[in-house]
Design brief:
Number of helices: 6
CATH architecture of the largest domain: Alpha-Beta Barrel
Number of domains: 2
CATH superfamily of the largest domain: Phosphatidylinositol (PI) phosphodiesterase
CATH class of the largest domain: Alpha Beta
Radius of gyration: 17 Å
CATH topology of the largest domain: TIM Barrel
Strand order of the largest sheet: 1-2-3-4-5
Distance between the termini: 33 Å
Structural class: alpha/beta
Oligomer: single chain
Number of strands: 5
Helix content: 25-40%
Length: 160
């Protein structure tokens, strides 16, 4: 498993323990054919992360609320991010989940300063996806986001 190699590398090189953002690629239409059902999927993932000893350093994220719900039942302390495809009201997802996720992760194009502020006032961090240009990163930081998901993390270095 790649995570084991990453953990070993960090340890051998006196680096701080890495943090992980893990997405469960799941969809109700795929259950039993391409992926296990949410309970089994979450249990398998939980067992791997527990064995690796990184549960306190992970965020579990998904577009599928079912895997988040199942994971929450296994360990309510693991941080979770609700990935959102379009500009859907958080109330819909919070109702489905039965709790407020730690992180709201929408498409960055759906955000503005007011939306970020409203989401944060509900106790969620706002970490949009997939922000790939420095100009987009700067604009989102002006909006007050807590972070962002990017394919080019090295691009963010110019923001320091």
């Amino acid at each position: 498993m790649l995570s084991r190699a990453v953990e070993e590398y960090a340890s051998k090189n006196d680096l701080p323990p890495p943090h992980y953002n893990i997405e469960t690629k799941s969809n109700p239409e795929w259950y039993g054919e391409y992926v296990p059902g949410p309970e089994e999927f979450s249990k398998l993932l939980y067992e791997e992360l527990s064995e690796l000893g990184v549960l306190d350093r992970v965020i579990i994220q998904s577009f599928d609320p079912s895997t988040l719900i199942a994971f929450k039942q296994l360990d309510p302390d693991v941080k979770q991010a609700m990935l959102v495809i379009n500009d859907v009201s958080p109330d819909i997802y919070i109702s489905l989940l039965g709790y407020t996720p730690d992180i709201w992760s929408p498409d960055y194009k759906t955000l503005d300063t007011e939306a970020v502020s409203q989401l944060q006032s509900r106790g969620m961090k706002v970490i949009p996806w997939t922000v790939n240009t420095v100009d987009e990163m700067r604009e989102l930081l002006r909006f007050g986001v807590d972070g962002f998901i990017t394919d080019y993390p090295d691009s963010a270095a110019v923001l320091r």
